[in-house]
Amino acid sequence: MANAEPGSVADPLKSAPLGSEAGDVSQPNSDEVAKWERNVVALGWVAFFGGFAQDMIQPILPLFYTSTLGLTAEFVGFVEGALTTLVSVMRIGSGYLSDRLKRRKAMIFWGYGLSAVGRLAIGFAASGPVVAALRLTDGIGKGLKDAPRDALVAGSAGRRKMGAAFGLQRMLDTLGSVAGPMGAFLLLRLWNGHPNQYREVFWVAGGIATVPLLIIAVRVRERFALSTRHALAGGGVLRGPFARFLVVMLLFTLGNSSDAFLVLRAHSVGFAPVLIPVAFAVLNLTSAAAAIPCGGLSDRIGRRPVIAMGWGVYALAYLGFALVRLPWMIWGLFAFYGLFYALTEGAAKAMVSELVPEERRGTAFGLYNAAVGILAFPSSLIAGILYQRVSPAAPFALGAALAALALMGLLFVPAANRQEEHLRGNPHI
Questions:
Q1: Nearest CA to 393 among 253, 268, 271?
Q2: Does residue 227 sit in helix, strand or coil?
Q3: What pLDDT, in 10s, does the model give residues 22-68?
Q4: Three-state secondary structure call for residue 307
Q5: By three-state DSSP, how is residue 24 classified?
Q6: DSSP secondary-structure letter at 68?
Q7: Which end of the chain, N or C, is more open, meaning fewer C-beta atoms within 10 Å of its C-beta?
Q8: Domains of the chain and any CATH numbers
Q9: What are the helix and strand counts (H, E) for the chain?
């Protein structure tokens, strides 16, 4: 994709470039469109190295907290819980701020910069309060970058390639999440017996976390086309088609509990614990391999059908986890479940982009990412209660049922922002 000729990138967009209506401050030529396409690729590699660094430290943080620093489980729970909440709040604020300031790139840069500082410096931490401050610094960075990055990807790709663009982000982010734990494993094997082996991994992860900063500085170009017909003073995004889509997504998310329950369910049918990481690797590789084709499919047939397919896969996978009885079946369920992520994540973000004007996309992505993240807590809490008090199959049955309800709710969400299409003067875009 990065090596495409300028004409090949621009041709699909010539019929209706994003800045084509009267009053736009941006009139893109084919060279600019090619740069926007490179933006998508560059931001994909930003996601790869960011995910690499994050998932390199994530598996060993609990051991570092308890064995190296001697922190209690309660303190660990407080810090990580506060981190999740802070990330969700920051996503809302950063998305809105990037719309108001009309600056995506700078906020993405500072977000990744704060995360890099937090991950590198934690290797020097010697007390609970210092660790808490550094983890929250990392959380501020993560919350600061997410919504502006999604908005910049959407603005750079062009509507006809938006699904594939988000599919590329998903693929590279997932591959980074596969490479991170493997990198940590290899380093721990190499430094086995070192008294500071966890700290050394943090330092390496901090170095890797600086790579996105170089890519952003050198390869990413600001992109913000503001139409005078869509003035920011025109109102919020929490109404109309986007609000309906958000409600449907939250209904689905209520049944989408933590993937930790997949581990518990696999263990309950006799799946060997040592094979759990391999099963998750299968899930992630399936998701990564299918991400771009599934995103491209949403560009061709529409977002709603692909999201519906994804939720259908989810419902069938969760039904399978509810009914599974033999350990060997777990392999197929994990691989099949990976298709859910590939089908839904890119298409859902592309749909968010289409349901709001470009100058409100940061706000919309902030609300979308934050709401889904916040609801992950009650969904996992409900799943835990059902798993413990009803049966190990119960949370999966609930997830399948809510996915089916969300599928019906999706029928009431418009395929695109019809008002915006009318204002563009081309309802066939």
A1: 268
A2: strand
A3: 333 344 444 444 544 788 999 999 999 999 998 888 877 877 888 88
A4: helix
A5: strand
A6: I
A7: N
A8: 1-224 (1.20.1250.20), 237-422+425-429 (1.20.1250.20)
A9: 17, 0
